[in-house]
From TrEMBL:
Protein name: Chondroitin AC/alginate lyase
Keywords: Lyase, Signal
CC terms in the record's Gene Ontology section: periplasmic space
Keyword field contains Lyase: yes
GO molecular function annotation: lyase activity
Domain Alginate lyase: 20-300
Top-rank taxon: Eukaryota
InterPro entries the UniProt entry points to: Alginate_lyase_dom (IPR008397), Chondroitin_lyas (IPR008929)
Length: 372
């Protein structure tokens, strides 16, 4: 675990490339280079229009054109780097990791030449439209990983408290945008994984900004709402299974539910074992997917165009065994882990197996999902 973490931190330390929204070759309709922009993943040129505009939806089929604008991938690299640098400092006390993390935070959020404006007005942008979409808010989803690593660096002599103060000002403006704009409000009201991840993002932002009582109340209400409205008594997640990539989204939303449960427990409510009025629960959602995972998807009653990838589900199953120590999860892991490793060997996944070690370790030691 530590070897893998330190290798990642060392790569982040040596990486001198620029992370900035100002690098993209195409500006958002605002013509402000500081406005973040990403292209809608499942939208393609309309063959019935001479210019192809506006783009049309083909759900489940990613348009490779999204890679032409790098804001999304650079934002994810930023979150990964600061996370890995922060946790590597925690274990090694190497101040150079903290110095690099501070540099990356300044570069993306504070430096007048390279900073991002505190909004996602043009995230998940459909060519031919004037604004982005509510679904683009999920681009900011992994910010919780970075926010968890920052407190670990404050003891370093290289930590810059003035930079953190300015960063919190940026986040406060972003949260105001998230909470008050029609884009943010619409995403919060989404019933599928987008709404769940909105809740996760909001809870971590409130907590990091020192608004603990708001975060506590939000986590309690969000956990109950997402379990009651997003899981059937059978464990099926109906808002995910109606997608053409139904297996992927069922697993993806379950990851968000795990994060909600951990946050609710952190604030004093046992979300792991909460049972809804019709018997809905997170554990039932795990068990529902488990039966199909063990049969390679045989009998899965929904459209599913991308197969039954095991890597992310296996990570959830490892955590499930820690939370609910039932031997059936351990026995299933013996069967499913080799399948997940094979997927990685065949390059279905670009993540490494060791990624889950730190996550499991943290859950076992203090019941928190540090980096999951």
């Amino acid at each position: 675990m530590l070897s893998n973490l330190i290798n990642k931190a060392n790569k982040a330390l040596k990486n001198d490339s620029v992370y900035s929204v100002t690098l993209k070759p195409q500006l958002a309709p605002s013509n402000d280079p500081h406005d973040y922009m990403s292209l809608a993943r499942y939208f393609w040129p309309d063959p019935n229009k001479p210019d192809g505009l506006p783009y049309m939806r083909k759900d489940g089929y990613s348009n490779p054109e999204i890679e032409t604008i790098k804001d999304y991938s650079l934002l994810r690299k930023l979150f990964d780097d600061v996370e890995n640098l922060g946790f590597a400092y925690y274990f090694t006390r190497n101040d150079s990791y903290v110095e690099k993390a501070v540099y990356r935070i300044k570069e993306w959020f504070i430096n007048p030449k390279t900073r991002m404006n505190p909004n996602l007005n043009y995230a998940s942008f459909i060519k031919g439209q004037d604004l982005g979409r509510r679904t683009g808010i999920i681009d900011m989803r992994p910010i919780y990983r970075m926010l968890q690593s920052i407190p670990l660096m404050r003891s370093s002599r290289k930590w810059d408290h003035l930079v953190e103060k300015k960063f919190k000002i940026w986040l406060s403006k972003y949260y105001f945008w998230l909470e008050k704009t029609s884009i943010g409000i619409d995403e919060k009201e989404s019933t599928n994984n987008h709404g769940t991840y909105y809740d996760v993002q909001a809870i971590y932002l409130l907590s990091y900004l020192g608004r603990e009582e708001e975060a506590r109340k939000y986590s309690y209400e969000a956990l109950i709402n997402r379990v009651n409205e997003g899981i059937l008594p059978t464990g099926q997640q109906p808002h995910e299974t109606k997608r053409p990539t139904s297996w992927y989204y069922s697993t993806f939303n379950l990851q968000a539910l795990f994060l909600l449960a951990e946050r609710s427990q952190y604030f004093g409510f046992d979300g792991w074992n909460y049972v809804g009025p019709e018997g809905q629960s997170i554990r039932k959602a795990v068990d529902y997917l488990l039966s199909f995972a063990l049969s390679n998807g045989k009998g899965w009653p929904f459209k599913n165009i991308n197969g039954f990838e095991m890597n992310n589900f296996v990570k959830l199953l490892e955590l499930a065994f820690v939370i609910w120590p039932d031997d059936k999860y351990l026995e299933a892991l013996v069967i499913l882990r080799p399948k997940a490793k094979l997927e990685q060997a065949l390059e279905y996944k670009d993540t490494e197996w060791e990624d889950n070690y730190l996550c499991i370790w943290s859950l076992m030691t203090n019941r928190q999902l540090w980096t999951c």
